[in-house]
Amino acid sequence: MNRLEGNVALITGGSRGIGAATALRLAAEGADIVVTYENSSERAAEVVEQVKARGRRGLAIQADSAVPQALIAGVDEAAATFGRLDILVNNAGVFLVGSLDDLGPAEIDRTLAVNVRAPFVASQAAVRHMGNGGRIISIGSNVAERAPFPGLALYSMSKTALVGMAKGLARELGPRGITVNVVHPGPTDTDTNPADGPNAETIAGFTAVGRYAEAAEIAATVAHLASADGRYITGASIHVDGGFTA
């Protein structure tokens, strides 16, 4: 299918994991792709090459999501390079865990800067380039609704904030034909949370299906929301978690 033919999508943190899988799925659906990265320049370049192999244009931009000016510049560069911006996927995130006593101001500030402020700032910048049919999709987390272990309070709080942002922006941007949603992945097989990791069996056991997701399975839902098929979905939080929150 080419549901996204003619669209330009920007995926923050798109050099690996769910971000990379999303970039490749949207490219396969017909979109030109821009990915941002903080440090993984080689992996970002690999994603761009795979995008081009699918017959689409691709671009990698170095931008630390914790730095608002860098993020805004990246959004503007994406729109200027390809002449438009239709889809923003707020994927970049940090996963810092620890007890209430162990998390200091530095950890709190970093988490909120990347997981909360960055999606808001990127959305602000992106809507300046979007017309009717624009899409903003943020990648949340299954622990926004269910925190099965101690030490998740900071991370859970940051991902829950995306729900409020989506609801508020859905109301604000709906009259402009722009939808805003959150996708909450469950445990997903990535470099930072491998399906064969030391706690993977226990974590997989919290799901109804008894396994980790593949990153491509999360990307499939993002692609649906990004396409015209998802035009009547906004302000929603969609759990792609194998029944983790059932």
Automatic annotation (TrEMBL):
Q: Which SUPFAM superfamilies match?
A: NAD(P)-binding Rossmann-fold domains
Q: Does the keyword Oxidoreductase apply?
A: yes
Q: Which UniProt keywords apply?
A: Oxidoreductase
A single MF term (Gene Ontology): oxidoreductase activity
Listed Pfam families = adh_short_C2
**Classification via SMART domains:** PKS_KR (SM00822)
Q: What class of enzyme is it?
A: oxidoreductase
PROSITE patterns named among the record's database cross-references: ADH_SHORT
Q: Tell me its EC number(s), please.
A: 1.1.1.-
Similarity comment: Belongs to the short-chain dehydrogenases/reductases (SDR) family.
What name goes with this protein? 3-oxoacyl-ACP reductase family protein
Task: Show the taxonomic lineage.
Answer: Bacteria, Bacillati, Actinomycetota, Actinomycetes, Kitasatosporales
